[in-house]
Amino acid sequence: MKARVIRSEDLVRAPWKNGGGTTAEVAAFPEGSGFDTFGWRISMADVASDGPFSAFPEIDRTLIVVEGGGIELDVEGVAYRLDKASPKLSFSGGDITIGRLLSGPIRDLNVMTRRGQFRHRARFVESGVALLAEETRVAFLVALDGSFDVTLDSTIHSLQVLDTLMLEATQDLILLSGTGRAILVEIAPDQPT
């Protein structure tokens, strides 16, 4: 099984689609695709001020606060508080969304999939074992609170905080060990095959 570690310090920052901040692309499909052409995209953004989010029509989006005090998202007039107790929200990328920082800058993980092509799910995992859903084509493990070791096919992949392991689909058990949590993101075709 193919697996690749993507180090947080190697990520390259680029302007947001609306120019209001920066994002670091972790991975996208097809590789090299732009904001209007990706099938799926995983990125990390640094949010330093309040303001509108870029619009991504036809995109399903999950935002997870990974560092900082949190953010309140106003999605089409409904407020959602994302903080340590409840750090994740899934919403339509086409919805009018405004962010208001709760107590200083944050870093968030964004997972986006193009409706009709791909779908995703994101969940928190801790030490133990994980199993990917049968329809998963590609998965990502992002270390959150500390170092995290992922064992695949007898190979140990060591992740530091905010490093990502990208792996191909597998039905084998994935062994996880670490002192904190990680985020497991699974991407599958929108229509099961």
CATH superfamily annotation of the largest domain: Jelly Rolls
Q: What CATH architecture of the largest domain do you see?
A: Sandwich
CATH fold-level topology of the largest domain: Jelly Rolls
The biggest beta sheet is recorded as: 6 strands, antiparallel
* Class derived from helix and strand content: mainly beta
**Rg of Cα set:** 16 Å
> What oligomeric arrangement do these chains adopt?
single chain
Number of H- or I-type helical stretches? 0
Strand content: over 45%
Structure in a nutshell:
The protein has no helices and 19 strands.
In words, what does this structure look like?
It is built from no helices and 19 strands. The chain has 193 residues and is mainly beta. The chain has two domains: 8-114, Jelly Rolls, CATH 2.60.120; 118-189, Jelly Rolls. The chain starts with a strand and ends with a strand.
List the helices and strands and how they pair.
Blueprint: E1 3-6, E2 13-15, E3 22-29, E4 40-47, E5 51-52, E6 59-68, E7 71-75, E8 78-82, E9 88-92, E10 97-101, E11 106-114, E12 118-125, E13 128-130, E14 138-143, E15 148-152, E16 155-159, E17 164-168, E18 174-178, E19 182-189
Antiparallel strand pairs: 1-17, 2-3, 3-4, 4-11, 5-10, 6-9, 6-11, 7-8, 7-10, 12-19, 13-18, 14-17, 14-19, 15-16, 15-18
